[in-house]
Amino acid sequence: MRNHLTIIGLAVSLSVANAARSDGTGVVAWGRPETRSAFTVGILQGGSLIGFDSERLVIGRVGLQVGAGLVGFDAGVTYHYRPGIRSRHVFLGFWSLGVPDDPHNLQMVGLTHVWRSHSTFTTQLGIGAIVAKGEEVRGSVADLPVMLLYSIGVCPNPNAPKGATR
To answer: Which pTM was predicted?
Structure first.
């Protein structure tokens, strides 16, 4: 439980620091420079039923992403197909669904494709390999080697004009 709270605290601190440091050096969208960070809140985000993910572009099209939720977390690396944080990308990451070392915990490593609109909508779909299961999860997951990974959320674009649907 202590490790889980430490990771959640780190994720929240990183997302707040990213929002505060956003330097606006990305591509231009709607005539305004785009930020290099994004914050998503939604269903099955952050390795939880309800959670958040925070991403920051660090070098060109490569970014780092961390997330947390009610009882879970995720972290990984992103690669954007086009320049800018609002573009489609792949996410290679680690998910811990539940508290580590808990009988209900499930841990996976996987790859997802993320669709992020220029306004507010985001969704992801991918596949993850199970690397660890708690005692209670072993019987309910039917010993599957992989699982489907998906989420849907809201990722506001501070640069989008009101009513933008682009």
So the answer is: 0.75
Q: Which residue range is the domain that position 79 belongs to?
A: 2-24+58-154
Residue 83 lies in a domain: yes
Query: Domain total for the chain?
Result: 1
In Å, how far are 8, 19, 91 from 54, measured between CA atoms? Answer: 12, 9, 12
Question: Taking a C-beta distance cutoff of 8 angstroms, is the pair 116, 45 a contact?
Answer: no
| C-alpha–C-alpha distance, residues 166 and 152, integer Å | 19
Task: Map residue 73 onto helix, strand or coil.
Answer: strand
pLDDT digits (tens, 9 = 90+) for 55-92: 999 999 999 999 999 889 999 999 999 998 989 999 99
Max Cα-Cα span within the chain: 54
Rounded CA-CA distance 150/128 in Å is 10
